[in-house]
Amino acid sequence: MGTLVGACLCGAVTISLSEPKPHIEVCQCTMCRRWGGAFFAGQDGGEVEIAGEAHVRTFQSSAWAERAFCDRCGSHLWFRFLPTGYCSFCAGLFDASIDKPIEKEIFCDEAAAWTHLTGDHDRKTGAEIIAEAEAAGFTFE
Ligand SMILES: [Zn+2]
Ligand SMILES: [Zn+2]
């Protein structure tokens, strides 16, 4: 799989992932729904290049997470898990992500009636995700 290049609506910010994951992850939690971007593309390792960083603003949405957006057009850019620095990028920024299947749907128990997804991908409830993270050593107050 080649480099995945994405851009915000106005083009001020571009993001390039050298080793994108071959699938999309979906978070159905109430915070992601309110924020407006619950579909994420990610990568493990590799290079992430961000151009137009002067237009990137961040909002710390909880003790452990930060969300980024473009200050010109308001496009949501990524969700960053602060303990590891891992970024999950909004999948809609990347035109080439359109064919990617969903690998995992998390906080599926918080889905709205109008965000239910079909298919037999992996589904985890919020309690399961928090238990997994706590087992991995992360704490959430
Ligand atoms: Zn923009
Ligand atoms: Zn979420």
Summary keywords:
141 residues, mainly beta, Metal Binding Protein, Guanine Nucleotide Exchange Factor, Chain A, eight-stranded mixed beta sheet, 2 helices, binds zinc ion
Describe this structure in words.
The chain is mainly β and 141 residues long. It has a single domain (3-135), classed as Beta Complex (Metal Binding Protein, Guanine Nucleotide Exchange Factor, Chain A). It is built from 2 helices and 11 strands, in the order βββαββββββββα. It has helices at 30-35, 126-135, and strands at residues 4-7, 14-17, 20-27, 39-43, 48-51, 56-62, 65-70, 76-81, 86-90, 102-106, 122-124. It has an 8-stranded mixed β-sheet. A hairpin with a 5-residue loop joins strand 7 and strand 8 (76-81). The longest helix has 10 residues, at 126-135.
- The quaternary state of the protein chains shown equals single chain
Instruction: Give a list of the ligands.
Output: zinc ion
Strand order of the largest sheet: 6-7-8-9-4-3-10-11
CATH class: Mainly Beta
**Proportion of helical residues:** 10-25%
Q: How many β-strands, per DSSP?
A: 11
SSE order, as H and E? EEEHEEEEEEEEH
- The amount of beta strand, in percent, is 35-45%
The CATH topology is what? Answer: Metal Binding Protein, Guanine Nucleotide Exchange Factor, Chain A
Distance between the termini: 38 Å
Shape estimate: globular
Structural class: mainly beta
